[in-house]
Structures are given as structure tokens and as C-alpha cells.
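Pipeline run #58 for the internal structure catalog. This entry was flagged by the ingest filter as a single-chain record with no existing model, so it goes straight to prediction. Upstream metadata was stripped on purpose; only the residue string is passed forward. Reviewer on rotation: M.T. Logging verbosity set to normal.
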Amino acid sequence: MRHTATSRTLALLALLLPLAASAHTGVDGGMHHGFTTGFMHPLTGADHLAAMVAVGLWSALAARRAWPDLLWAPLAFAGMLLVGALMGLAGVQLPAVEPMIAASLLVLGLLVVTRIHLPAVVAMAVVGVFAVFHGVAHGHELASEQGAALTLAGMVSATVLLHLAGIALGWALRHANAWLPRVAGAAVVVLGATLLAQAV
């Protein structure tokens, strides 16, 4: 059973790494419109997918208790992602959006590797800042599109589901071999480093 779980984890990570060439902005060709497209976007962009799962994974691995520790960071990320997207729609410009998105993967990956427990307010602040940059990038892409509200609703819905998937995976790995979460976190770090090298 443990060998099967290990094989599946490594296979998933192997599938994610080749997607590193797909940068955050424009990964779906700018075809943002409607709930379904918004829902699919986090599932097809390697950076968004890795960030969402990593937030949930870290929350579960570092939690001292199931409630409410599991939810602070995921709720903060989903909420601030929406705030950032609305800022982007309004034309707000932030510096270094793509490097910050890549940096978010580096930090989140390291948090997964180390399983550091942070106070709720600090955890929410860390992920919330990065979520704003993810959201602003999406908001800029949506600025000239019809149906932006439905697209954002789909995107946030998929984000929440990816957080939940990360939480479930992290909870299952809490008492497994310690290297399994570390491999997952290291893969996120590698993806972040690759994207950062492309962005600078």
C-alpha cells in the first residue's frame, strides 16, 4: 500500500514538472470567459495548481489540530486571490507580478518541506500576499473579457477544491514516511525556481 502511494505521488510530480514552461499569464491563451473556463484554469496552469495544492498540503502537515488550523491559510489564499483579481480588473498595477508568483511556489514548497507551524495570523498574511499577485495576474487577463464575474467564480471554486485536495493529501501523509511530503515540497520548489528563472 505504501509503495503504491509513493508511486502515485512520484508520478503526479513527474507530470507537473514538464508544465513549468507554461507561465502563469496566458497559459490558456487568454480565453477567459464563463464559469467552466475559470474553473479549468487553475487545473491547467502548473503554477496555480502547485500553489493551491501546496497551501492545503502545508496546512495539513503543519496543523496542530484539525480545526481550525487546517483552514486559516486556504481561506486566506482563496479570499485574497479574489481581492487581487478584482484589483487587476480595476486596472491596479503591481510590480514584479510574475517573479512574485514564482517566489510563492518557492516559499510554499519550503513550507511543505519543513512543515513549519506558523501562528494563524502569520500564515494567513504569508499566503495572502502571494495570493494577491496570483489574483492580479488573472484580473489583468480578464479586464477586456465578457463574463468576468462568472470566470472568477469558477476560478475561486476550483481553487477551494484544490486546497481541499491538498488538505486531504497532507492529512493522509502526516504519519507516513517523512520523505514523501518533502519530495512533494521539493518538486514545488523546483517548479518555482524554474519559473523564477524564466521571469527574471
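catalog note: Confidence is low (pLDDT under 50) at residues 9-30.
catalog note: The two ends are 42 Å apart (CA to CA).
status: ready for reviewer M.T.
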